[in-house]
Design a protein that fits this description.
Layout: H1 8-18, E1 31-39, E2 42-50, E3 60-61, H2 62-69, H3 76-89, H4 102-105, E4 109-115, H5 120-123, E5 128-131, E6 134-141, E7 151-153, H6 156-162, H7 166-180, E8 183-187, H8 188-202, H9 207-217, E9 227-231, H10 246-254, E10 258-264, E11 267-272, H11 279-293, E12 305-308, E13 313-316, H12 317-335
Antiparallel strand pairs: 1-2, 2-3, 4-6, 5-6, 6-7, 8-9, 9-11, 10-11, 10-12, 12-13
Helix pairs in contact: 8-9
């Protein structure tokens, strides 16, 4: 059936009614459900196809399928076929029984950072830690396959079932993340060099040729004044904000206090105070970059923060500047 005139409701209804026909015989009695779903930084309409006895099954994002494929001319048959492939190929490579024991999942915990306002509804049901408008949630890695990341968020219900309190959960999840995804701090220039080298290596260019080309065209240094803060994977790297002494270590490397730009959920940027750039300009920069270059689900915040190395305080950039104005005014009055 070729039909490019369906609205979203008709699209989801059609897929729900026809998906089992595209799946193997073992799915004939499966339960098919279309429902609203939430994950960090986004909500969507989800398709669930569950056979009897299956506990973990893929959640298919129909909102994305409609907006990125159907609305751009892909046929409904191709979309259903692709969904069927995802469902049929999604064989869990983990033992679901491990969720019965905290000892079994302790070393599989990791952390993610996201925006409080965007995820406010979800936060009612999950344990989290908070810095300003950023929240840290806890997740269990169910697969070690880097090409197919499977994880589950720790809810309050699961935390209670496992018999662990929030403090211990936080300690273990942060410890694992630090060990498995260590902090990386490098200049923007070096980060670009590293990214370019990785891309050329994957294209089959020799390492010697790459080094020669990069050194010639991208000399080392830090002319931009920007420092990239992330983890080694550059995935969910902004969560390093919760690594103990991370801000203190960056301040020590820079030799001064600095503004923190929430580049995305994957990395943060540090701008030293000596740059002379103020929070108003940085807020505009963050908002414009988010709008033009960062996918909605990867956005962390639309404003900058500031870390005061002397006071060891992280605060909103404009709050820091207002605090400095008050201190200067009070100092001036005291000297009169």
């Amino acid at each position: 059936m070729e039909n490019m005139n369906m609205n979203f409701k008709e699209f989801t209804d059609y897929i729900k009614e026809n998906i089992k026909a595209a799946l193997p015989e073992s799915y004939r009695d499966a339960e098919v459900e279309v429902k609203d779903a939430r994950k960090l930084n986004s909500s969507y309409t989800s398709l669930i196809v569950r056979r009897e006895g299956e506990e973990i099954v893929p959640s298919i994002n129909l909102t994305e399928a409609f907006n990125s494929r159907y609305a751009n001319g892909d046929s409904i048959e191709n979309i259903i076929s692709g969904i069927a492939d995802i469902i049929n190929d999604s064989r869990p490579d983990f033992d679901i029984s491990m969720l019965n024991s905290y000892d079994d999942i302790r070393d599989k915990l990791f952390i993610r950072l996201s925006n409080e306002d965007v995820n406010r509804g979800m936060l009612e049901n999950v344990p989290y830690a908070q810095k300003l408008d950023m929240v840290l949630t806890y997740h269990i890695a169910l697969s070690d396959d880097p090409e197919k990341v499977t994880s589950v968020m720790v809810t309050r219900q699961l935390m209670d079932y496992l018999g662990v309190d929030g403090r211990q959960l936080h300690i273990d999840a942060v410890k694992n993340s630090m060990e498995q995804h260590p902090l990386t701090v490098m200049s923007m220039e070096d980060a670009l060099r590293e990214s370019m080298k990785k891309n050329f290596l994957s294209a089959g260019v020799s390492e010697a040729e790459i080094d020669e080309m990069i050194d010639k065209n991208f000399p080392r240094g830090n002319e931009s004044g920007l420092t990239v803060i992330s983890n080694g994977d550059k995935i969910n790297g902004a969560s390093v904000l919760f690594y103990p002494y991370m801000l203190e270590n960056v301040a020590e490397q820079l030799g001064e206090s600095f503004y923190v730009l929430p580049s995305s959920i994957h990395e943060l940027l540090a701008v030293p105070d000596s740059s002379g750039i103020k929070s108003e300009q940085l807020d505009i920069m963050v908002s414009e970059v988010n709008e033009a270059e960062v996918a909605p689900q990867d956005r962390l915040s639309n404003h900058c923060y500031h870390y005061d190395a002397k006071e060891q305080v992280l605060e909103y950039g404009n709050a820091y500047e207002n605090r400095m104005k008050v201190e200067m005014r009070e100092k001036g009055q005291a000297e009169m």
